[in-house]
Amino acid sequence: MSSMETEKGAVPTPQAPPVAPTDNKYGVVDVILRVLLLAASIASVVLMVTSKQTEIIVSPFGSRPNAAKFQNSPAFIYLVAALSVAGLYSIITALVSLSYMRKPIVPPKLFWILLIHDVLLLGIVAAATGTAGGVGYIGLKGNTHVRWGKICNVYDKFCRHVGASIIVSLFAAAVLVLLVFVNANSLYRRIPKY
């Protein structure tokens, strides 16, 4: 049998699309961003949890000490919970990224999984940051239309801690946006070009 006959009679078998080799610069950037996410999450949680201040409040019925703490606001509790989840998630995904950096071939499914979870966590962290920011703004400026008084003129240390925590959590959300871009770009580069 000649080689010409085999080529004419052979039925082409479908082959799986090629998997691109690992690009280490994306892996390194991914791990660095995940470590930054961990640091920002921890810093923001510590700032929020340590935001406590007690002041003497004078009223017509007498004076009494009154404490402002993050547990008094569901929005601040939500921020602490969301950033705690983000910190745990960053540890797990950094370890996954490190383990795949050593392999010559990374399955595209991993990038899809990371991308979907990064987007989901971005939504959670952004929502928590926005909610806490809204409550913090009311504490800072008050709302005369509904007669909510501002409290930051009395609880200044508490408000500084809350404000710093919100700014750091905004940085964590920006890191998550960068992670989404890195993983989407890395996944795009693995699409076979015809």
Radius of gyration: 26 Å
Which series of helices and strands comes N to C? HHEEHHH
Oligomer: single chain
Output the strand order for the largest sheet. 1-2
Tell me what portion of residues adopts beta-strand conformation. Answer: 5-15%
Helix percentage range:
55-70%
Q: Please give the alpha-carbon distance between the first and last residues.
A: 34 Å
Helical stretch count? Answer: 5
Q: Show unreliable segments.
A: 18-22
- Give the helix/strand class: mainly alpha
User: What gross morphology would you assign?
Assistant: elongated
- Tally of strands: 2
Mean pLDDT: 84
> What is the makeup of the main sheet?
2 strands, antiparallel
Written overview of the protein:
With 194 residues, this protein is mainly α. The chain has a domain at 22-51 and 74-131 and 157-189. Helices cover 66% and strands 8% of the residues. The chain contains five helices and two strands. The chain has helices at residues 3-9, 24-49, 74-101, 108-141, 156-189, and strands at 52-59, 62-69. It has a two-stranded antiparallel sheet with strand order 1-2. Helix 2 packs antiparallel against helix 3 (74-101), helix 3 (74-101) packs antiparallel against helix 4 and helix 4 (108-141) runs antiparallel to helix 5. Mean pLDDT is 84; it is low at 18-22.
